[in-house]
Structure formats: structure tokens, C-alpha cells
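Q: Here's a chain of 343 amino acids. Please give me its 3D structure as C-alpha cells.
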Amino acid sequence: MTTKSLPLTPKDLASDQEVRWCPGCGDYSILAQMKKALASLDFPREKMVFISGIGCSSRFPYYMNTYGFHTIHGRAPTFATGLKMMRPDLQVWVITGDGDGLSIGGNHLLHAMRRNTDLKIVLFNNEIYGLTKGQYSPTSRIGTRSKSTPTGSIEGPLRPLSIAIASEATFVARTTDVDITHLVTVLQRAAHHKGSAFVEIYQNCVVFNDGVFEYATNKSVKNDNLCYLEHGRPLKFGKDRNKGIRLHGLTPEVVNLGSGISDDDLLIHDEKAEDPTLAFMLSRMVRVPGDEMSFPEVMGVLRAVDHPVHHELVQQQIDEQIKKRGPGDLQALLTGDETWTVT
């Protein structure tokens, strides 16, 4: 692979492989914005790595002119953790989907986050299994009709942001595939974060779950359904910015501004709060289309805190043991008292 001196352009990050997603798939936008986000970084592409599991999203490493691995179902965080441990100088991205990351890969995903492994985890959420042709997924909504739930799903969906926050990820954010400026900004912030960064992207599957996020992407209605988070600013939303969220005791509620209710009464967003309680509360908000007083769904960074990272803590332990015991002797270990010969 040839390298190019900085600065990079999005074109420099495009591979020579034919992009093979369905026409109209939201993955195309995510790929394009990832190239824009990474091209803006002062970071060499030969030190960028993309690791994926199985699913439509997992084709991603083929389409980036960086290093990458297309691994096995749900295990991308495991491969990524091993790589980051041995090569801490690399910027390691994990590309996964709601099926790959939250079903068979759920165990690996949550432990990568709780360890604060320095990975950038991007979860494409289209609320369906696309590659295997339209079965319901862990994030599918109650009532979802699919090939595996022809009369409608009866299972409550997992909420990726809630899982990330409960797993103590130190950076947690959400964006959408078609909100280009916002998507680039969120990916840039994830790239700069040191620690476990988790980004959920609402991504439209035009074939098997088309329009499931219409309420969050249609310009005529999305401002009434979404609340864009800004650190240190009150939680306001609505087409006319005339609604907000305040706490009534420990319970959040939607209020209309005016008639004695002002910005001063609203909850102020604090993405740097060590206590994740409020971030978790935001992750639980679900919009009910048509209900003007239901909660909006949040977009942006819910949490961004600094904690010691996994590979540095492990290296500290190794350095301490070397200082205490010396560098060690592998041959002496193999022939020591804990080994024997079978004849």
C-alpha cells in the first residue's frame, strides 16, 4: 500500500474496490462522511485500521484505503482489542450493525466498552437484518413485520445508547446517515476521543425496512421529533424551538416555553458529567410520532469523559513487573519446575 504525505483528501481514503450495497442504502452516505471526517484529521492513513464482523455494514473495510480486517460474526471488538493492545499507535475503528453487534456480538461489544479500550465503535442501526434478507433484529420495534416475525415482533427492542452508557463507554453519541454535517462532526469527535467511543447511526435499509426513521430524517418534521444536544445548553427542540425538557423531581417532562416557563427552567446538557445518570435518561427517550408531548429522540454527544484507557493500564502493570522481576527469560520458563517431559 502506498502512502501519501498529509494532508489527506477523501479521495485518498477511497479504495479501488467496487462498492456493493443496494442502490439508495444509507451506508453510502456513512462511507462518504467517514472519508471526509478522517481526511480532516492530522493522522496518517497507514495508521488507520477498520475492523468489521458480518453484515451489510461489515463490507466497510474493503472500501477504505487503509488497513483493515473483515472478521467473524460479532467478534470485531475482540480482534480490535488485540490489535490495539499490541499496536497502541494505531487508530482502530470497529464497524458493526445492530444484528452483528447486539446479538451474537453483544458480549464482546459491552466488554470492549467497559474496559475503556481505545476503539472507535460505529454501529449502523437499521433495525433489521439486511444481509440475510430481512429478519427482525435486536433493535426492531414491537410490531415489526419481517420474514421471521410475519405477525409482528412481540419483543422489546434493545437501545444501543443505553447499553453503551450502562457499559461505561466514555464517549457515546448518535447521528443519522442523511444529516451530513452532523454525521461528520460526530465522527470527528469520536476520532479525537481517547477511550471507548461508541456512535450509533440511524441508517435506512431501503429494501427491508425503508422509512423506519422518516420521523428523524424528513426535514419537514424532524425538528419536532429530535433534540440536538449542545454541551452547557438547555434541552430545547421543536420547529420553532418552543419546547424543552425539564426535571419534575427525578422525572423528565416535555414543556412548552412561555406562560412562565423559560430556558432557565430547562435541563442543561452536561456531556462531561462523571455520573452517567442523566445521559442514561436521555438514551431512554423515544419519540411517539403524532404525540406532540412525547419525548424527542436525542442527537449528538450524550457523554464524553476522560478515564484511564485499557492498553495503558495493562502496559503499566507489565512495566511494574519488569522493574520488580527483570525482563524475564522464556527458555527458563519453559524448562522450569512447572514443566515435565513425557517419554
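Q: Can you summarize the key feature?
A: The chain is about 30% helix and 15% strand.
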